[in-house]
Amino acid sequence: MPVESHDETIRYTADVVLLATGHVLLIQRRWDPHAGTWALPGGHVDAGETSLRAAVRELQEECGITVPADELRQVGAFDAPGRDPRGRYVTVAYTATLPKPVAPTPLDDAADARWWPLTDLPPLAFDHADILTATTR
Fold first, then answer.
1. Smallest Cα–Cα separation from 15: which of 95, 116, 104?
2. Distance CA 115, CA 62 (A)
3. So what's the pLDDT on residue 131?
4. How many other CB atoms sit within 10 Å of the CB of residue 3?
């Protein structure tokens, strides 16, 4: 019996798990979905851009923090159907560890940005708790 195939639009994003002294950097989302909820910095990969370059750019655009691309390590790809209520999104997550927290400046899509203790996190948007767990195990 033939398997029915359905094309679906897939959007490509990058997220950053930035760690420092037992803390993780989170942004408070300015827009829906999940407006007001805390999330990892990240966003869409632009045309002609790699996910690594998008991760560096999004961290700078949302938090005012620059981490060189060669200091980011890929955690993995997260592609579970339903991970984003807007449709099918695939994200590549990256991580870096700073020796100490750097003061973030909430910019662009971030209503706020701050360092949270890994032992006392707020509820996270999307599947960002799963990404954080995969990063810190």
1. 95
2. 14
3. 98
4. 4
Output the 3-class SS for 79-122: CCCCCCCCCEEEEEEEEEEECCCCCCCCCCCEEEEEEEECCCCC
Q: How many residues does this entry show for the chain?
A: 137
User: How confident is the model over 29-62, as pLDDT tens digits?
Assistant: 999 999 999 999 999 999 999 999 999 999 999 9
With a cut of 70, list the residues of the chain below it in pLDDT.
1-3
The matching CATH number, chosen from 3.30.710.10, 3.30.450.20, 3.90.79.10, 3.40.1260.10, for 10-136 is 3.90.79.10
Residue ranges of the domains in the chain?
A: 10-136
Q: Rounded to an integer, what distance in angstroms lies between the CA atom of residue 62 and that of residue 89?
A: 19
pLDDT attached to residue 75: 98
Distance (Å, whole) CA 23 – CA 115 = 6
